[in-house]
């Protein structure tokens, strides 16, 4: 749930400080229920009451206690946003006066219970906020913080086209350099060409700023011809004249849609999720720099120079993030990307798994030059620097480990086989030695018996010799049987030893 953790920031920002003085009191929820639970029976009547309707399309809560608790925090945040005191805290007095002229309502639609309502209203993304203003449906895809949402709502209720009437307003126009902006010169508000321009502005309101002038003096300072429209990319010194004059609504819309991804764009709280989802081939080149910090300002100027030199490259889009605008996300970014946001950083990030590769910048050395930065960016665009390389290295390491394990197993098997062969050879040698010893003993015994018989019985006849021969044969048979038994026992023992070795292995 992308909103959940941000509600804590809302509640903290709207808490009450015990030392607050009059005029600086931070409001707390007063307990009044200002958020409508929309259903099939009441949604039409409720929405008719307001000029602007803000609807939070949320997932079904069910009976889960934790989900209920989170949802109650979300609802409380919406309650706080509708409080006049909260508006006073968030906006200046003149802004609050403008809000007094507009009725803004807040409602909730449950994904499961109010599915039919969501379908009729065109709500298709759960956990999103939709703003209904006149005939337009605007999806709010930014941070759910009270000040951010209220500021966005203020932009919504403003006219899609802001008219430049004097020098001060012209100076304010030139001071806007972080957003896409268009300016045109028309004869009057009733001009059919201005009406086409105004209709196109409604399609992109309030995300893209549209300006116009009817004053020839202002037009000359902007170098505009009648019915001409200039397109300003963020951080660019010179605009681009949109081809075709006069322009229709369709021509304007088509041109903007083809050029709505700037070379250098700033991540804004009110459109942070939409910007992050607009990746190129699943990757973002991300630069962190604090504009108010000397090093951050220097690095940002280098980024602007690189962007101006490469504004015609459709494959290059750098997201600049000022950490001061996202204090709650700083620890997360530092932990996820393993970087220190106390100094400027630039890297390439895989949007799916947050793998990243960062340019090595020494804090003690000067910032990289524009040429050095361009070379690094070129390596990123060509694929020489790829955040997915770390994944490939990990896979290779795993394969190497597997190969090493297999080699170890093979070596162990070879050693075991060698041991078995050695054991078999030793056993065979022992058997041969035993057989030789037994044969020698038999021969010695036979010789001794024959000598004794010759000395003691020289006068015996051939029958006695035959008897002695028979006895000798019997003795030899008995000895041979004993030898065979011994060999069998030895072989059995050797086999048992081999089996034991195999079991151990």
Automatic annotation (TrEMBL):
<comment type="function">
    <text>Calsequestrin is a high-capacity, moderate affinity, calcium-binding protein and thus acts as an internal calcium store in muscle.</text>
</comment>
<keyword id="KW-0703">Sarcoplasmic reticulum</keyword>
<dbReference type="InterPro" id="IPR041860">
    <property type="entry name" value="Calsequestrin_C"/>
</dbReference>
<feature type="region of interest" description="Disordered">
    <location>
        <begin position="382"/>
        <end position="505"/>
    </location>
</feature>
<dbReference type="InterPro" id="IPR036249">
    <property type="entry name" value="Thioredoxin-like_sf"/>
</dbReference>
<comment type="similarity">
    <text>Belongs to the calsequestrin family.</text>
</comment>
<dbReference type="GO" id="GO:0005509">
    <property type="term" value="F:calcium ion binding"/>
</dbReference>
<protein>
    <recommendedName>
        <fullName>Calsequestrin</fullName>
    </recommendedName>
</protein>
<keyword id="KW-0732">Signal</keyword>
<feature type="compositionally biased region" description="Acidic residues">
    <location>
        <begin position="387"/>
        <end position="505"/>
    </location>
</feature>
<dbReference type="GO" id="GO:0014809">
    <property type="term" value="P:regulation of skeletal muscle contraction by regulation of release of sequestered calcium ion"/>
</dbReference>
<keyword id="KW-0514">Muscle protein</keyword>
<dbReference type="InterPro" id="IPR041858">
    <property type="entry name" value="Calsequestrin_middle_dom"/>
</dbReference>
<dbReference type="GO" id="GO:0030018">
    <property type="term" value="C:Z disc"/>
</dbReference>
<feature type="signal peptide">
    <location>
        <begin position="1"/>
        <end position="20"/>
    </location>
</feature>
<dbReference type="GO" id="GO:0033018">
    <property type="term" value="C:sarcoplasmic reticulum lumen"/>
</dbReference>
<dbReference type="Pfam" id="PF01216">
    <property type="entry name" value="Calsequestrin"/>
</dbReference>
<dbReference type="InterPro" id="IPR001393">
    <property type="entry name" value="Calsequestrin"/>
</dbReference>
<keyword id="KW-0106">Calcium</keyword>
